[in-house]
Specification:
Chain lengths: 472, 284
C-alpha cells in the first residue's frame, strides 16, 4: 500500500501577502496520524543520521501513530529543545527528509514521497505548547553549584542554555539587542515563524530557570575574563554570523540599497511594516530587486512583496541569482512560496554595479548574463559571466542577500580568542572549546553561515563538553 | 529600584527660538565603567521606538552614570526630551564604537559645532589628559547654544568661540578661525565633530595644509553593532561601518557627498511621522 504524502494546508497566496501572518497552517491530528502511518519504520532508520541533533525520528513518528503525542513530544525534547521552531524552519528536504528511505538515490534534496518529518515535528511541538508539557530538570546535585554564561540568544545560545539548564546548571544568557532570539527574531519573518511561538519557546527556557539579560554587549560592557572572575565556570559563545557581505561593485552605497540584514531587521525586529505606529522606517520601492539565492534572499523578497501589497503599490519584486533554480541554496518550500506569492526570478544574472539619481537614490542595476561552467568547491556549477552581455534592470530598492560573515564585536576586543581568516572562532571540533580554556563556541560564529539546527547541533556538543568539564 | 536605563537627571541645557538642547544623566554602571572618549550608546525610548545612537559626553564610574547631551531634532529625540527623572529608557546598550585613538600628538585643535560641542568635550579632555596642548574652537548659531563653555575652558589651553550672528565671540564660522590658526602656527591633529557641512569644511581647510584630521560621523544606524550596514560610509574608496569601524574616520578620505545623501534617506518619513505623532501628542 503506497499512500500519497499528506499535503499541509497553507493560506492562499493572494490572501497571505496582505499580512505577516503564518503561511503554513500545520497538520490537524487526523492529518498527522495519516502522515505518520506512511512511515515505514525502517529497521535501520537513515532519517536520524540526517538530523544534526539526532532526534529519534522513527520513535516519535511511531508514538504519533499510537496517539501518544505527549510521549512523542518528550522523545523529540530529548534531543531538541525547540520542536515548534525547528518544525517550521528546518530545511528538512536537505536533512532528515533527504536521508529518508523514500527519497530517490542521488537526489539533491528530498523527494516528494519522503515522509514530511518536519510537519510531524511541528504538530508534536505545538501539541506540547497547547498542553503545557514540561520536561523535568535533573537535580544532579553537583551541577547546580555551577553557573554558566551564554553569549548570544540566537539558536546556538538558546539551545546550549536549554541543555545546561535541564541538567541543573544555573545559566545566564546575555543578548546585545533589546529582544531575544537572535536571527530567529531579527532575520526570520513572522510569516515563517510566528512571534508567539518564538516567545513560548524562549519562555520555556525561563521556566527552566535560565536568566536572560538583554541590552548587554559582552566584550564592551564586560570582558570574558571579567565574567570568568565573577564566577561563571564556563562561557558559551553563540555570537552568530551577523556581518552582512556586500557585492563590492560600484554604486553599492547608493540610497535604498540595503543589506538583507538591515532590511529584515528593520521589518522584523523593529516592526517597520507597522510604520508609523512603529517609528523605524523602511523604504518600499515600485521595483525591488533582491540579489541572492538563499533563505535570507527568499525572506527578504517575500517581506518586500508583502510591504508593496500592504502599501498599495503593485507587487514588483524580483530575485536575481547568478546560477539557476536547482543550485539555489534556499529551501525548496521557500522558493515555491515566493513564486506562488508573485516574486519573480531572474537566473544567471550577475550584478556589476548600480546607478542612481541626483539625490543619490538607486535607479538601475547593471548586470552581466552568465552561463554555468564547471562545478566549484561546493559541487555546484560555477556561474561564468558572458562578455558583452551587459544589460540593465530598473530598480528603486535593492536588497543584497549574498551571505553573512562572523560578528566581530566580541572577537575584536578579545585578542586571545583565536579566529580563522574569515573571523570565525577556532574550536576543538570534539568539544567546541576555543583557544581560551573554559570558553566554548558554536553556531555560525564557528562554522560560518549554516542552518538553525546545525547551530543547535554544535551547541549541544558544546553543552556536553561543558557538563563534562563541570563534573570533572 | 536603580536599574540600567534609569533617568537620574534631565534638564534643558539651552533653549531658544523653539530649538532645545537637553542634558540627561542615566544610570548605567557597566557603561560608566567602560566608556572611553569617542564612544556612544544606543537607546530606545519605547518598545515601538527607533534605536538611535548618542555620544557619551561624560561618565562617572563611582556613581555609575553616563551623561548625554542631545538636541530635540527628530521624533526620537523629541520623545526622549519628554521623559523625566525617574523614568526608564526602554533599552540602553553600549559603549559602542571604536574609542578615539589616544596619543600625545603635541598641538591639537578640537572643533565642536552646535550640539557637537558636547561631543567635542570628552575628546578635548582626553587629549589634554594625555599631554597634548589643546586649542578648542566652538561655534553655534547664537550665544544661547554655546554649551559646555566652562567645561571646555577648564580643559583647553586656548579657546575660540564663533556664532553665526555674532551674538557672542566672533561672528562667522569655526572654519574662519581654523584657517587663521593653521596659517600662523603648526598643529599636528585637528579633530572635528558637528554638522556634516562643518566637518566637511574643516576637512577641506586642513587638506591643503596636510594636517591629520579626524571627524566623528553621524551616520544612520539600526542595531549599531555591525549587523546591518545602514551606517556604511566610503572612506578612501572602501566601505566602512560607522558603528564598529568608526564613528571616527580620517576626514580627508570620507566621501562627504555620499554620506550627506545617505543621511537623508528617510527625511520625508521623519517629517511625516514627527508631524503626525506630535499632533497626536502621544508617546507611542
Amino acid at each position: 500500500m503506497k499512500r500519497e504524502p499528506v499535503k499541509v494546508k497553507e493560506s492562499e497566496a493572494k490572501e497571505r501577502i496582505n499580512s505577516f501572518a503564518e503561511v503554513v497552517e500545520g497538520y490537524t491530528e487526523q492529518e498527522a496520524l495519516i502522515e505518520a502511518q506512511r512511515c515505514l519504520q525502517c529497521k535501520n532508520p537513515a532519517c536520524i543520521s540526517g538530523c544534526p541533533v539526532g532526534i529519534d525520528i522513527k520513535k516519535f513518528i511511531f508514538q504519533i501513530t499510537q496517539k501518544d503525542y505527549a510521549d512523542a513530544y518528550f522523545t523529540i525534547r530529548q534531543k531538541n529543545n525547540f520542536p515548534s521552531i525547528c518544525g517550521r524552519i528546518c530545511p528538512a528536504e536537505y536533512q532528515c527528509r533527504k536521508a529518508c528511505v523514500l527519497t530517490k538515490k542521488d537526489s539533491p534534496f528530498a523527494s516528494e514521497q519522503a515522509i514530511l518529518i518536519h510537519y510531524l515535528e511541528r504538530f508534536v511541538g505545538d501539541y506540547g505548547i497547547r498542553h503545557n508539557l514540561k520536561i523535568s530538570i535533573e537535580s544532579a546535585g553537583r551541577l547546580n553549584r555551577h553557573k554558566v554564561a551564554v553569549v548570544g540568544s540566537g539558536p546556538a545560545g538558546l539551545c546550549c542554555a536549554g541543555e545546561l539548564a535541564r541538567r541543573g546548571v544555573k545559566v545566564e544568557v546575555f543578548e546585545g539587542l533589546h529582544k531575544t532570539g537572535g536571527v530567529l527574531r531579527y532575520g526570520i519573518p513572522p510569516f515563517r515563524l510566528p512571534r508567539d511561538i518564538l516567545d513560548v519557546e524562549i519562555d520555556y527556557l525561563k521556566n527552566l530557570g535560565v536568566g536572560i539579560v538583554s541590552n548587554f554587549i559582552v566584550g564592551n560592557m564586560k570582558s570574558l575574563h571579567e565574567l570568568q572572575k565573577e564566577g561563571y565556570s564556563s562561557i558559551f559563545l553563540g555570537l552568530g554570523a551577523g556581518t552582512p557581505s556586500f557585492l563590492g561593485v560600484t554604486g553599492e552605497n547608493l540610497c535604498n540599497i540595503y543589506s538583507a540584514n538591515e532590511f529584515l531587521t528593520r521589518v522584523n525586529l523593529m516592526s517597520a511594516y507597522q510604520f508609523p505606529e512603529s517609528h523605524t522606517p523602511v523604504n518600499i520601492g515600485k521595483r525591488i530587486i533582491v540579489v541572492g539565492g538563499g533563505n535570507t534572499a527568499m525572506d527578504a523578497a517575500r517581506c518586500a512583496l508583502r510591504l508593496q501589497k500592504m502599501n498599495g503599490t503593485p507587487c514588483d519584486t524580483t530575485v536575481v541569482y547568478r546560477r539557476t533554480e536547482i543550485e539555489m541554496p534556499a529551501r525548496r518550500l521557500e522558493i515555491e512560496h515566493a513564486k506562488e506569492e508573485g516574486v519573480r526570478f531572474k537566473f544567471l544574472v550577475q550584478p556589476e554595479g548600480f546607478q542612481g539619481d541626483e539625490r543619490g537614490f538607486v535607479t538601475k542595476m547593471q548586470c552581466l548574463q552568465c552561463a554555468l561552467g564547471e562545478p566549484d568547491s561546493s559541487g555546484r556549477r560555477r556561474p561564468v559571466p558572458l562578455k558583452g552581455s551587459d544589460f540593465e534592470l530598473d530598480c528603486d530598492v535593492a536588497i543584497i542577500a549574498i551571505g553573512l560573515k562572523a560578528n566581530q564585536v566580541l572577537t575584536r576586543v578579545t585578542p586571545q580568542l583565536v579566529v580563522d581568516s574569515h573571523g570565525d572562532i577556532t574550536v576543538n571540533p570534539l568539544t567546541m572549546e576555543t583557544s581560551i580554556k573554559g570558553i566554548f563556541a558554536g553556531g555560525d560564529i564557528v562554522g560560518g553561515e549554516g542552518t538553525v539546527i546545525e547551530a543547535m547541533g554544535m551547541a549541544k556538543k558544546a553543552s556536553e563538553a561543558i557538563i563534562q568539564s563541570l563534573v570533572a | 529600584m536603580k536599574k540600567n536605563g534609569l533617568i537620574e537627571e534631565h534638564a534643558i541645557l539651552a533653549e531658544s527660538q523653539g530649538v532645545r538642547i537637553r542634558r540627561m544623566v542615566l544610570y548605567a554602571p557597566e557603561i560608566a565603567t567602560k566608556a572611553k572618549a569617542g564612544q556612544f550608546i544606543v537607546l530606545m525610548v519605547s518598545e515601538y521606538g527607533e534605536r538611535i545612537p548618542l555620544t557619551i559626553v561624560s561618565r562617572d564610574a563611582t556613581k555609575g552614570t553616563v551623561t548625554l547631551i542631545f538636541q530635540e531634532a527628530g521624533l526620537t529625540t523629541t520623545f526622549l526630551g519628554r521623559l523625566v527623572a525617574g523614568d526608564f529608557l526602554y533599552a540602553l546598550a553600549g559603549p559602542l564604537g571604536t574609542p578615539t585613538e589616544m596619543a600625545c600628538y603635541g598641538e591639537v585643535i578640537i572643533i565642536g559645532g552646535g550640539v557637537g560641542i558636547a561631543e567635542a568635550y570628552p575628546v578635548a579632555k582626553a587629549y589634554k589628559d594625555i599631554g597634548n596642548r589643546v586649542t578648542a574652537i566652538v561655534g553655534a548659531r547664537t550665544k544661547d547654544f554655546l554649551i559646555l563653555l566652562d567645561e571646555l575652558k577648564a580643559v583647553a589651553d586656548e579657546i575660540h568661540v564663533t556664532t553665526d550672528n555674532g551674538s557672542f565671540g566672533r561672528k562667522g564660522f569655526v572654519t574662519d578661525v581654523l584657517k587663521e590658526l593653521i596659517t600662523k602656527h603648526k598643529y599636528n591633529v585637528v579633530y572635528a565633530v558637528g554638522p556634516l557641512p562643518m566637518m566637511k569644511a574643516v576637512s577641506n581647510a586642513t587638506k591643503a595644509a596636510n594636517i591629520k584630521t579626524l571627524v566623528s560621523l553621524n551616520a544612520l544606524m539600526v542595531d549599531a553593532t555591525g549587523m546591518c550596514g545602514s551606517c556604511r560610509v566610503s572612506v578612501d574608496g572602501k566601505t566602512k561601518f560607522s558603528c564598529i569601524d568608526g564613528p571616527e574616520f580620517p576626514g580627508h578620505l570620507v566621501d562627504w557627498d555620499e554620506l550627506d545623501k545617505r543621511n537623508k534617506i528617510y527625511a520625508s518619513q521623519e517629517a511625516h511621522v514627527c508631524k503626525l505623532k506630535l499632533a497626536q501628542g502621544s508617546l507611542t
